[in-house]
Fold:
Amino acid sequence: MTAATQPNEYVADEPTILPGKAPLDQDWADVAKWGAIGASTMIFVVLSGMLTGLDSRLVIERVFSLGYLAVVWVPLTLGFLVAREEVLEGMASHAKGANEVVSGGIVGALSGAGLSLLILLMDSFDLRDPLVNWSDKTLGLLQFSEDSFFGIVMWAVIGLLLGAIGAGLHLLTPDMRRLVKIMVVTVLFVSVFETFLTDLFKGFGLVFITDFLYAARGGLTIISTIVLAIVAGLVAFFGKGRVKQAQTRINAGAVEGGGRTKANIAMFVIGGLLLVILPIFTGKITNELLANVGIFLLLALGLNIVVGLAGILDLGYVAFFAAGSYTTAILTSPNSPGWSPELPWWVALIVTIGVAALAGLLIGAPVIRMRGDYLAIVTLGFGEIIRLLFLSDWLSPWFGGAQGITNIPPADFGFFEVKGTDPRSVFYLVLALSAIAIYVSWRLERSRMGRAWMAIREDESVAEAMGINTVNVKLMAFVVGAVLASFAGAVFSAKVGSVFPSSFLILVSIIILVVVIVGGMGNIPGVIVGAVVLIGVLGGPKQPGLLQEFSEYKLLIYGALLIFMMLTKPEGLVPNARRTRELHQDEFLQDAWLRKQVDEDEEASEAELGDGPTAGAPA
Amino acid sequence: MWEILTAATRSKTGKGKTNVDRFLTLLRVLLIGLLVIGFLAFIAQQINPQNAFAQRVNPDATGLTAAQFKGLLVTGLSQGAMYGLIALGYSMVYGVLGFINFAHGEVFMLGAFSGFITSSKLFEAGAWEANFILSLLLVVLISIIVSTGAAVIMERVAYRPLRGSPRLIPLITSIGVSFFIQNAVILLFGPGAKGYPRLPEWLTEKRSILTFEIEGTKILVLIVAAVSMASLWWFVERTKTGKAMRAVAEDKEIASLMGINVNRTIVTTFAVGGAMAGVAGILWGILFRSVIATSGFLPGIKAFTAAVIGGIGNLGGAMAGGISLGTAESLLPLMILEPLGVNGVSQLRDAIAFLLLILVLLIKPTGLFGEKLSGDDRA
Structure:
């Protein structure tokens, strides 16, 4: 054991590497388990129609479609996963070798065999009645338009190879792995975002790039794929460490004082300018997308205050969005059925803020004392009640029932008109409001109120004992969240030009929740990333995203993402440091325990140093 | 009366009232006042449909005939029994693990969906009409297997890794599970409504029992619910596994010290809850004869409401809560809202269920029959 030479040193960065396992000495039950998971995932993906539905979208011309991509990632990922070894700090790990590749290959082959089995079944039985995708088209794609024997053998072979490759990634050095990752990601990114990039390049008059990259019927050409991979590889190879260096330089500047703030301000200014200039060059589709991202960003920022900072799980958040939209609609539309003062949009916005704050108080007050999970369900109930009220015949003299309120005029600022047919203007409005929302959230987070919210999130009883008026503070979170949602609602009304109860389903609340959670609860950059990635790429509840082909599957993906994030990374993609510590308390404690073990070993060092710091590691 | 209205306030703070407390008291008074006035208006309307109040708020009011009332009552009871069966799953899981399994409504939907598939296959084969009772038993059996399997897999994949994490984490996960299952079913089986095959005539015809004209299907639903409830009661109170479940609900750590396999007991809890949801799924199929992928959402939330009304963790309470919710949902729109001049009351049925949940949590958060939870979950 290498660590035995220096048993007392706590080494966090470089885990001990034990020699590889003896040949064929592996956990076969584990391999079989992952194989079964892989097989069922692949069968599910095919039967859910992703293979057929996404087949028309090509990734690489004539060779590889998005449909196949939806299937083949499974053996690759599982091969990688099965060969992975969970290494906690201070634990030793085995050197990777042929054993891992073999088990990865077996897992992949088992997964592929799932599809072979499916081909066999589809050939002999007709289950078209309940299963909508049990069709000849699916079967044809599964067999690569050959006979069934070819398909059966092919899938097992493909699975075997991909599984082995996935596991083989562990054999590469970290640098090599990074290089491969960057190359694959670049190719996928460029091909999958074809529409967006075409739009962008067209705006800048760079059509020759798109002509080179993409084939006439969509997808990268084979040559451009190779060129892209090489370029990405070269950039990654020579650019290695530059980002890190820059970061260190900025951080070093912070030590000298003022440098970091300056750098941050410069970054913000540059980012802001880019955002202002970009829409001038991009086309309508991209701007529409940006406008949708902005509206959901506003909603997510509001929910971030409620869920992320104060730790109140509000599942009826859509109620405030609805309240904002309907108030704006009633105040501005000449078609408002009950009372139509036809105010200008910005006056209506002021009233809307007031109404939303009141709604926040009224909905917040009854639920604020309930325990967290009851509160979630009750707010969900409120969200549904509000929608049912807007929908009902009883209140239709005011809210128009199922017909909603139509003919909402554009938001007119005199010099600048925001209307749905011009998504660029909507984007600018949303950008301005988002900037306000971000500033407010940022200041609030660092205020006395923000600290009170975080204290409540961590432990309500302790917070109360510290003299925080928990009821008032939590109510404030509701109110601020509601006001931010009403911003989004007001913009939404002006953009769409009409409001219907069907735009305010509980679904919307859940999607916003996913945005906040995937991005990073309680962290503003995280929420921005979440909104851009999820709403921009997958799309909102009714709004299409970049991957328009995915619109059928996006809700499924949202659900899967929510489960996946909660299980693996509950703090989100861009985590908030404090929140991470709360959520991973066990692991932190375990690390602390390990460290303590190391210290104790130190004291009793002479006796048994054989296993070094790993002696106390849990099996 | 006033004590009930302000009780929660005083016990919680023990000091002067805040504005929030005053608001809550006002809300309680308002909600109860609404119920009382609505009910009084209903009685007045039954005595004289043309009384002064009814003339003002609701001139077309006709009141309910006895037959209508009985019909609504029976509908409410049968639906309530179904809610009760789903609520058992919520209640047991909450009792043992202290979290709301939001995806339990989806387990119910999967039961109803598998029931649709089996019954329509049996119908195609001709067995449904030739031997209805046997086919129905088979359908129930398969749907119990599917629902139980779904609940157990759910626990293994999504909830077990999260045991011991902060309270809201498993709840959020269960929302994800619910979303995933709903959309997976839409993708696999298509988004349209699926119709159950026709039921035999001797089952659907109305029968007269104690002056009630009851459709056979509703009698069947009530009987099945009663039998399931009785067997569940026997299982929890009289078997060793049931005893283990109660022990785990009381205190997980002590239970494991007593030699109880906590993990297995939790899986059993999910399985039993899933089985009950499966039975409820078939009852839904019999009552409404149509199922879609989103069928599980509202009944799921309502069943949770029922579990809260009856006192969460309390099995008898869950059933009683289900039945009272079902009845209230079918009667209250016509007995409270319509006499108050609300039109289109049937649209507000679901809103009534949520209002009841809020009312119960405001007035008696521990439910009508008291909670049965382990110490640390009662916080």
